[in-house]
Every structure is written in C-alpha cells, then in structure tokens.
Design a protein that fits this description.
alpha+beta, four-stranded antiparallel beta sheet, three-stranded mixed beta sheet, 7 strands, 52% helix, 16% strand, rod-shaped
Length: 217
C-alpha cells in the first residue's frame, strides 16, 4: 500500500493521539490490489511533531462522532424548549402573584383612607406593618419578572445548531465540534472479544467536553 497526500477532513486536529497528545491528521491511500480508496486518521511521524503511533479508520470515526453530536444537540434543543416553557410558566405565576399583592395593597390603603381598618380587626400599627410587607413582595415579584424577561437568548439557537450540524458545511461542523469539545483522545485498539470482533471504534474514543461556562464564553 502506498500512502498518498493528506486530506483535511472533519476531525483532523480534533482527534488526539493517546501517546503524545498530538492532533491526528486525515490521510487517504489507494490499495494496490483492489484499487479502493481508504481514509484514516493518523498521528504524524516524529519529524512532524507526533509519534506516529496511533491510527484509526476515518469513516467509522466520522459516523460515530456524527451520531453522538446529533444526539447531544437534540438533547440541547429539548432542554432549551423545556427551559422556555418553564420560564413562561414562572412568569405567568409571578404576574398572578403580583396582581394579587397589588389588589391586597389597594384594598388595605382604601380601608385605611376610609377609616374602616377596625372592621377587619386591624390597628394603625398593623396597617403599616402589612403595607411594608406587601411592598417588599411586590418589589420582589417585579424584580423576578424583569430578570426572567431580560435573560439574553443564546448566541446561536439550538435549532440552528442542529441544522448546521446535520446539513452544514465542513467549516460549520468543525465550529460546532470546537464549541462543545476540547478534543477526542483516540485510545489504543481493544482486543476483540469472542462475540464482537469489530474494531470497537466507539470504545476507543474519549471525548473531553467543555463545561457550560466554557461553552457560554
């Protein structure tokens, strides 16, 4: 088999060698007998900063990462929709509580101005104590509503991220990968078991995910 020139494909530089931590690069070569084009990711040789000790089939890795990120972004989308629903429900409840407290305050002030506090067994001292408590509740409700309504949206909507991942260009997909991942370490090949003699590619991949703080930055 003769190696050809390198081909920059989606996971080049994102996959990492477990030995030297160098980014793997995409390569392709043509088999002499079958003429079939084979693609893989390899660690560069020592004269290019790597160790040359790690290689993995590109199509299988690409498919595994495609599946994993699609599932991850679907969960992000669902979580985003759930969060919006919960925020809307919370705002509705806060507005109802605010209206209730405003109505109680209005009724209390009306009784005080009409001199009818005694009809509900309230003294002047009770009036000012209750009025102060209602003012605090009203202020708290308004602050909470303002905070929820003023929450800035995500720079990129989950729907757009999922679309860009499933149907986007190479650059869009790489940008999404780099947004959520530091890297994916490629571990050594696992010995085949009696029941599974495949290359066990998924088990060789160890992603290093970014934290929510790093993603939001």
């Amino acid at each position: 088999m003769r190696h050809g020139t390198g081909e920059q494909i989606s996971l080049s530089g994102i996959l990492r060698c477990h030995k030297c931590r160098r980014g793997l690069v995409g390569h392709k070569y043509k088999q002499r007998k079958s003429g079939r084009i084979v693609r893989n990711y390899v660690c560069p040789p020592s004269d290019r900063g790597g160790c040359g000790g790690t290689a993995i089939a590109a199509p299988t890795v690409d498919a595994a990462v495609e599946e994993a990120l699609s599932a991850f972004l679907c969960k992000q989308l669902q979580a985003s929709r759930t969060g919006l629903d919960q925020s809307a429900g919370t705002i509705t409840a806060l507005r109802a509580r605010l209206d209730q407290n405003l109505a109680r305050k209005s009724e209390l002030i009306h009784r005080w101005s009409e001199g009818s506090l005694h009809e509900v067994d309230l003294s002047e001292e009770d009036y000012f104590t209750m009025l102060s408590a209602l003012n605090r509740k009203i202020s708290s409700c308004r602050d909470s509503i303002a905070t929820l309504e003023g929450t800035p949206p995500s720079p990129v909507a989950p729907e757009e991220l999922l679309t860009n991942w499933t149907a986007g260009s190479l650059l869009q997909k790489r940008a999404i990968l780099k947004r959520y991942l530091h890297s994916i370490t490629v571990q050594p090949p696992l010995p085949p078991s009696e029941f599974n003699r495949s290359d066990l590619v998924k088990e060789r991949l160890a992603p290093r995910w970014k934290t929510s703080t790093e993603i939001a930055a």
